[in-house]
Design brief:
By secondary structure, this protein is mainly β. It is built from one helix and 25 strands. It has a single domain, classed as Beta-galactosidase, Chain A, domain 5. Strands 1, 9, 10, 11, 12, 15, 18, 20, 21 and 25 form a ten-stranded antiparallel sheet that branches. The longest helix has 6 residues. It is globular, with a radius of gyration of 19 Å.
Length: 317
């Protein structure tokens, strides 16, 4: 779901903190839960940090082992992937930035904390304006609905000009889930048969080449060498969701990413016991990129007084 709409000049008054004695929080980590799932959220980066089934006691989210990848589910804003030589241009001015943007490294403000939902926000400040010249409000909402976790992203334009950004998610899921299994015991099954090719990546940049992965099927086997050439990056898939399944065909979870422009799939190396499913609005720079940031592929233009809303979800079985 993607929505662009107008909003009032004042921030919605419903974004007020709610104190609830049933909510656990410590060290800037907060939890929401129902009778099926318990979800952790880190205040740093506003990222999902735990997705625990209360039905079988299994943790589905990667627990940030730094041996492979020291994050859980970072939020990518205001750009995705690498920007060429860590710089981007708006008009004649050059700005500096690191891979995947700055939101994942900043502390989000807790706005709502209730038993089954939580809202966090990140607002522009003088420091962000030094390296990204737009006034924004980024809001992340986590909502539990039975065995589903819905994550909603909202960007509000607080500027007196259009703002430009990319936005994406980077959740990592434990694969395999059991000690006696291998990552290659699992596969991804997409909603529809796909013919999209992955964009080839060279040192983190798009190099203009493409590679077949689906071969007109709707499945991707998670083989040991699947990520030997970095992430798989697909544009404009036909499918709106995919399942993780094991070799006997059992559904482990379903990830829904309707209306996102791109989908990345990644793991660190052949041994890393996780897989990332990454819905994006935007993509990394090409090699030798020399464009104005506002014209970069996948960039969202958001007009004055407008908000951008998108959502993905995961269903645990």
């Amino acid at each position: 779901m993607v929505v662009i709409s107008y909003f009032a000049n004042s921030i919605n008054k419903s974004f007020k903190s709610h104190q609830n004695p049933n909510i656990t929080s410590y060290m800037s980590q907060f939890f929401i839960e129902n009778n099926l799932l318990k979800v952790g959220i880190n205040q740093k980066g506003g990222e999902l940090s735990s997705l625990l089934s209360l039905k079988n006691g299994m943790e589905y989210l990667w627990q940030a082992n730094p041996k492979f990848w020291g994050r859980h589910s970072c939020i990518l804003f205001p750009y995705i992937g690498k920007i060429w030589k860590d710089n981007f241009r708006i008009g004649k001015k050059i700005y500096h930035g690191k891979q995947h943007g700055f939101a994942r490294d900043l502390v989000f403000e807790k706005i709502v904390l209730e038993k089954e939902k939580a809202t966090f926000q990140l607002k522009y400040n003088e420091k962000t304006l030094d390296n990204y010249p737009f006034r924004f409000l980024l809001i992340i909402k986590y909502t539990l609905k039975k065995n589903q976790l819905h994550i909603t992203y909202e960007v509000d334009n607080l500027d007196n000009q259009p703002i430009y950004f990319s936005l994406g998610a980077h959740p990592a899921f434990n694969v395999p889930l059991k000690k006696n299994e291998k990552r290659s015991d699992y596969f991804l099954e997409f909603e529809k048969v796909e013919d999209a090719k992955t964009l080839e990546i060279n040192d983190g940049y798009i190099d203009g080449n493409f590679r077949d992965v689906f071969n007109e099927k709707n499945t991707i086997q998670i083989s040991d060498d699947l990520f030997s050439k970095d992430a798989l990056v697909f544009k404009n898939l036909k499918s709106n969701f995919l399942h993780l399944k094991n070799l006997i065909g059992e559904k482990i979870w379903t990830f829904t990413f309707e209306d996102f422009s791109y989908l990345g799939i990644w793991s660190y190396n052949q041994e890393s016991p996780f897989i990332c499913i990454e819905p994006w609005f935007g993509v990394a720079d090409e090699l030798n990129a020399n464009w104005d940031f506002r014209k970069k592929e996948g960039i969202v233009e958001l007009g004055i007084g407008k908000k951008f809303i998108c959502e993905h979800s995961v269903t645990i079985y």
